[in-house]
Amino acid sequence: MSSTASGTRNGTWRNWGGNVASRPAREVEPASVEELADAVRRAAEDGLKVKAVGTGHSFTSIAATDGVLIRPQLLTGIRRIDRDSMTVTVEAGTPLKRLNMALAREGLSLTNMGDIMEQTVSGATSTGTHGTGRESGSIAAQITGLELVTADGSVLHCSEKENPDVFAAARIGLGALGIVTAITFAVEPIFLLTAREEPMPFEKVLRDFDELWAENEHFEFYWFPHTGSTNTKRNNRSAGPQRPVGQVKALFEDEFLSNGVFQVAQWVGRAAPATIPAIAQISSKALSARTYTDIPYKVFTSPRRVRFVEMEYAVPRGAVVETLRELKTMVDRSDLKVSFPVEVRTAPADDITLSTASGRDSAYIAVHMAKGTPYMRYFTAAERIFTAHEGRPHWGKVHTRDAEYFAEVYPRFGEFTALRDRLDPDRLFQNDYLRRVLGA
Ligand SMILES: Cc1cc2nc3c(=O)[nH]c(=O)nc-3n(C[C@H](O)[C@H](O)[C@H](O)COP(=O)(O)OP(=O)(O)OC[C@H]3O[C@@H](n4cnc5c(N)ncnc54)[C@H](O)[C@@H]3O)c2cc1C
To answer: Which residue, judged by its Cα, is nearest atom 50 of ligand 1?
Structure first.
């Protein structure tokens, strides 16, 4: 199974995780900003809502619509590379993979990335997609300018200097402020990262968390529920030489151990959930330490072949150790059988209105379950712990929070909704998800 796009079959659109479906009234694939603006105007005339979709990698119904679905396929490519300002401007539907590869060919790179690069640039940034970083933030935090088509069909540009109030919010716009047509990102000369992957006891990671975070540009780890084991990953800039994970080793470790063995473990676990803790013990021990050096996107990202459903919350970084202890205690005391690791990452505070890291140094804790297995009991118990620490859920991952909650955990929530009232007074870009998280 690949991790590429969602799709529409027999009129029904489904997301990657298979947990969201919708039936759009019609679909359009604009090939230019003019065609897109035209589609927005026509939808308004027909009394239909509008929603742009990326690759459907969100686990929430944030991209679902019963109105007009705007597909990204024909709005792709690099518009401009500006070596004076060190920026790249891309069409909104460009997959992150294509952006990363094009930049590398030009000797350039983004500063930070998430775990995969299948998503479109607009889909990824609209929900606040992030990796891990001590100083470097989410993909949206690397945006320096945006172009969007608003509800009246006009084209709006924003940056720190031009319409700064729109820029503050629209970098993570949840699809609520307009349809993004182009994004300008800050880039830097391409560099090398050395990755050190190393299994480490859960207790040691928690005890040394502050040091591990402070000593590394990008620190993250996976904890295997039902075990006291983790796998840590430290990425730091390096002078080289480039030492990619060898082809054979990559095939063995990534495809067989990380994805292949994992897939089999999921099948066995689904057929016989009672075996999951034993499988977790074995698979957490199958990992071994390794070090490699490569260009950024090859170190940050890897394919995800086993499908899953995910919840992820950002908590204040200072609360991460306590939150993780509570999560482990909850799993240990329950009869839950959790076959997927818990992923822990960090981000520095940023200045984007509804970024999960808005104004707050953050740590992310993500819980996963295999696609097709019941996940709500685990996620509900985890969510109770996350929200007790004023957690902010990833906009694209399963959660049950609503506008009332967000008004409490986001000091600038009212700023976002006021801007939405101005840019989309008739709620052309509304869907059920936005009604829940932003209000009517
Ligand atoms: C295997 C996997 C790995 C993942 N890894 C990470 C990770 O490492 N870090 C992380 O933070 N998240 C991660 N995610 C979550 C994922 O990055 C986000 O859900 C992201 O939003 C998906 O991008 P997409 O292109 O599929 O957008 P979609 O899910 O299709 O859409 C997301 C939102 O963007 C809006 N949108 C799309 N295009 C436009 C546009 N042109 N204008 C305005 N709005 C638009 C949609 O309306 C919707 O609101 C992962 C998800 C999966 C399935």
So the answer is: 57
